[in-house]
Design a protein that fits this description.
Elements: E1 5-11, E2 21-27, E3 30-36, H1 49-53, E4 68-70, E5 79-81, H2 84-102, E6 107-110, H3 118-129, E7 134-135, H4 143-153, E8 158-159, E9 167-171, H5 175-178, H6 185-193, E10 197-201, H7 207-210, E11 214-216, H8 223-236, H9 242-248, E12 249-250, H10 252-259, H11 264-271, H12 275-287, E13 291-295, H13 305-318, E14 328-329, H14 339-343, H15 351-354, H16 371-380, E15 388-392, H17 396-399, H18 403-412, E16 415-420, E17 432-435, E18 444-446, E19 454-458, H19 471-483, H20 493-500, H21 507-513, E20 515-517, H22 525-528, E21 537-538, H23 544-547, E22 568-572, H24 587-590, E23 597-600, H25 602-607, E24 615-619, E25 624-631, E26 639-642, E27 684-690
Helix pairs in contact: 2-19, 3-19, 4-13, 8-11, 8-12, 8-13, 11-12, 16-18
Bound molecules: ligand MGD (2 copies), iron/sulfur cluster and molybdenum atom (MO).
Length: 692
Amino acid sequence: MDQKSREIKTHCSYMDHGGCGLIVTVEDGRIVKVKGDPDGWLNQGYVCPKGLASPKRLDHPNRLRHPLRRAGERGSGQWERISWDRALEEISTRLDGIRQRDGARAVAFGLGMPKGLDHFGQIRLANTFGSPNLVASQDVCHAPREITGVHTCGFYPVVDFKQPSELVVLWASNVPATNEEGGICSALLKQVGQGTKLMVIDPRRGSLADKAELWLPLRPGSDAALALGMLNVMITEKLYDAEFVANHTHGFAELAAQVAGYPPERVAAITWLEPEQIRQAARLYANAKPAALAWGNPIEHTNNAFQAARGLVCLMALSGNLDVPGGNLQPLEPKIAGLGPYVRADLVPDKRTQMLSAAHGVIPRFMTIPPTYLRRAILEGNPYPVKGFFSMDTNPLMAWADSRLTKRALESLEFFACAELFMTPSAALADVVLPAAASLEFDDIGHYGLGHGYILARPRVVDPPTECRPPMQICCDLGQRLAGEDLWPADYREMLNMVLEPSGMSWEEFVERGHLQGPEKFRKYRDKGFKTPSGKVELRLSTAEKFGLPPLPAWDGFPEDTDPEFPLVLTGRKNRVSLHSSYRWVDELRAKNPEPVLEMHPDDAAKAGISEGDAVRLSTRQGSIVQVARLSRRVRPGVVYAEHGWWFPEDPDPLGGWERSNFNLLTSTAKLGKEFGTPNMAALPCKVEKVA
Ligand SMILES: Nc1nc2c(c(=O)[nH]1)N[C@H]1C(S)=C(S)[C@@H](COP(=O)(O)OP(=O)(O)OC[C@H]3O[C@@H](n4cnc5c(=O)[nH]c(N)nc54)[C@H](O)[C@@H]3O)O[C@H]1N2
Ligand SMILES: Nc1nc2c(c(=O)[nH]1)N[C@H]1C(S)=C(S)[C@@H](COP(=O)(O)OP(=O)(O)OC[C@H]3O[C@@H](n4cnc5c(=O)[nH]c(N)nc54)[C@H](O)[C@@H]3O)O[C@H]1N2
Ligand code: SF4
Ligand SMILES: [Mo]
């Protein structure tokens, strides 16, 4: 290595939830190489194509490099370059104007997938501004499993890939592609190599289904029913952990009576499985000690999200796998700042009653606003009007169900500003766009607030372009103007020190260590019970009447009615080389996934006269889009997979061709799950036709 070249250790981030340790080689201030760090705590040398391509975001010619102010109609693509001072002044004056006139709650703050510490910076910005309305995608991402967990057993039961399991169940989890929340697939594959068995519950036979003891290709959207069928078998065949059930659960008799109504024969008809497959699945899961259950997004992509998640937590409890090594854990945090004081939740004491979703009766402890309720507030003034919106790290026009509704809502705002790396279809509708620094260009802490019991150091490896600011710095700059200098430091790095302060560790010491983990203790319930009203796992919710929740898991029918005009069932999964709608403009990633791919079984394709590579029109009752057909026997007949997050940065349309292939033109907000406001993004009746 020559003298100008140096290697820096950091962690990959902003390409998914993050987690892989990286060794980055920098020459003359530019990144020339990235490789997986063999000492990486979670990845042990593994790196995926997104991680390898992550530096390519930094010097892309069309990256946003200056603050922009709208110079024509919203969405017309006409902009003027302005200074940071003017941009910050404009945003703070406009948002403060709305606050003065209509109250702080008339301004909402927006976020996407949690990427870094700025996620919590933005929550703090909303709180210090005084608004109870922080809008995020959690209605379809993790709130259902986390908060259902909290109500049922007092915590979010996190899958354990670190300690050995006898069995790992991948239930709607696409971990080889998604490595979600730091559950890097290489750790799972290592276990499988050492004898861990797999069970896969997924309509698509992915690479891990090939290695599995049992693969259940269920009908999309029938997960809640399958869970009930498995509970039925575990109880009738007395396969459950009797000691755990007797000492640590509440409402077993009622659960048993409830699931007696779901024998395998009934559930088989709902799930498109054989009764024997359901029995096998229950036996395999119940008899493996320990067994870890990895749950994925489709559990939370229908209005049945709460019931499906309830069923899964009951399975973990009956099998005695809660908080056992190799099962589903309640991780303890290291000594770092607690989330509540960090985001200053105390500054909006009436949040519970004032937040938009309070009027919609969502489940207690669900504190972000489902995007559907934001749009109702903007467009209908329901329950009160929202007029200003500031978002970071999100592309709502792609990410939220019913993109036309999103467009109307963003266009109707009195003022909309956002921070971005690139001019996305959503940013194109803003009044002011701030240029953000990208990960690798700023110091950051990973996995804070995600409930996994550890944080990761993500030191900066290069400087950002002169006018691009770290997302947390943008929070500080706006925070100082909107909430004052006593609540916000001038330099974002103080926000990192704030997290570390209780540990007694400096940023440099933390970077040197790479990660901080909480104490590893298991079966904590034996001393302390479960943090629920009964002190036990609430198979029957003792708070059901108080909170208006269904007391016992149940099957409420398919998310959408079947319809002969739309005979196939549409669902989705993430692509290994893309992150939602992000980075479609990074050539190295785009080359690996140049067009939106629709996967279907060759038999279904033949019936519709569709061949491999055909452009096809995919329609639901809500709308229609075009994608490119790929025929695959891995997909169960009757099921169609389409990719979400597709727009075309190269399209001259200022909104990047947002209407051509965007999955969320097919989804609607007409039917929502009551607990989380979750719309149906999976299990949609659809049809596929060849484009003439
Ligand atoms: N149909 C359908 N819809 C879905 C899903 C699905 O599976 N199907 N998945 C859902 C899920 S799980 C989630 S989490 C959401 C995700 O929703 P979003 O998080 O909104 O998804 P992205 O499209 O990745 O948008 C992220 C944006 O952040 C920008 N960005 C990247 N780095 C930075 C930065 O440092 N600063 C700033 N300011 N911006 C940056 C990217 O350019 C990108 O435009 O989508 C949900 N929507
Ligand atoms: N490459 C990549 N990685 C990502 C992301 C990304 O966009 N791209 N996004 C990140 C985010 S925000 C999240 S939340 C996670 C999501 O991580 P995962 O939950 O792993 O993501 P998905 O790809 O949505 O997984 C869906 C899996 O469920 C299957 N499936 C589809 N419908 C159904 C159904 O109705 N029932 C059952 N049982 N299975 C079904 C699919 O075949 C697929 O295997 O990934 C994170 N990591
Ligand atoms: S798996 Fe995730 S954290 Fe690891 S290199 Fe890929 S994008 Fe980065
Ligand atoms: Mo997500």
